[in-house]
Design goal:
The chain has nine helices and two strands; from the N terminus they run H-H-H-E-E-H-H-H-H-H-H. The protein has 234 residues and is mostly helical. It folds into two domains: 66 residues, Winged helix-like DNA-binding domain superfamily/Winged helix DNA-binding domain (Arc Repressor Mutant, subunit A, Orthogonal Bundle); 140 residues, GntR ligand-binding domain-like (Four Helix Bundle (Hemerythrin (Met), subunit A), Up-down Bundle). A two-stranded antiparallel sheet has the order 1-2. Helix 4 packs across helix 6 and helix 6 runs antiparallel to helix 7. It is globular, with a radius of gyration of 18 Å.
């Protein structure tokens, strides 16, 4: 797969509102992260600072600060000679990352069933219902935002800081891939069913069941991505 030069589409792209300075940094990071996760900026894409600044309506200083954050998350790579580009992962990297994530999420689910509060469970259930609404409206970005929040809350409910740090580091690298794994309708339907099972296991405080569901959920995403790559999907 060849690297591609970046040319930001002007139609349908989110434009940054006028912002207070203290909010600008986080907002630029979030917009760029969304462009990468949702595929507006594909793997290997070289980033043109001037075009990005014009698209987002910002100067180069906040852009460069945001790029450093995304580099630390593993979403982009910055080279002294080539500049910044969206990070890419080999098929082996993807396979191994999802195998590891399946174990991390399984462990988090087991701990969460022991430690989650009623308030946290209610928040996860509310996110699940909102996620299903997005699915019914064919709103994949909205669906994925709530999906990501559910997995994040389960991880937080595990209350294990070492697990949290490892999870955050790896999850940042594979967000775009997790998003892409829902592009095929049957896989999307299966993911929603998995989340319904997750809610039931959490309500029952059944750690072994939730652990098994989460492990298989992540491995199914791995398999969907391997199939897409095998079919030549970028």
């Amino acid at each position: 797969m060849q690297d591609s030069d970046f040319s930001m589409p002007t139609e349908g792209v989110k434009q940054l509102p006028k912002l207070e300075r203290q909010r600008l940094h986080d907002t630029v990071v979030e917009h760029l992260r969304s462009f990468i996760i949702e595929g507006t900026l594909g793997a290997g894409t070289k980033l043109n600072e001037r075009e990005l600044c014009e698209t987002l309506g910002i100067s180069r200083t906040p852009l460069r600060e945001a790029l450093k954050v995304l580099e630390a998350e593993g979403l982009i790579e910055i080279s002294p000679n080539r500049g910044a580009s969206v990070a890419r992962m080999s098929e082996l990297d993807i396979r191994e990352a999802f195998e590891l994530m399946s174990g991390l999420e399984a462990f988090a689910g087991e701990l969460a069933c022991e430690r989650i509060t009623s308030e946290e469970l209610d928040e996860i259930k509310a996110l699940h219902y909102a996620m299903v609404v997005c699915k019914n409206q064919n709103d994949l970005p909205g669906y994925y935002q709530r999906n990501r929040a559910i997995h994040d809350l389960i991880n937080l409910a595990a209350r294990n800081s070492a697990l949290r740090q490892t999870y955050m580091a790896l999850n940042g690298r594979i967000q775009a891939l997790r998003f892409r794994s829902n592009l095929q309708a049957p896989k999307w339907e299966r993911a929603v069913h998995d989340h319904e099972d997750m809610i039931q296991a959490l309500e029952a405080r059944d750690g072994k069941r939730l652990s098994a569901i989460l492990r298989q959920h992540l491995l199914a995403k791995r398999d969907a991505l391997m199939l897409m790559l095998g079919q030549g999907s970028e």
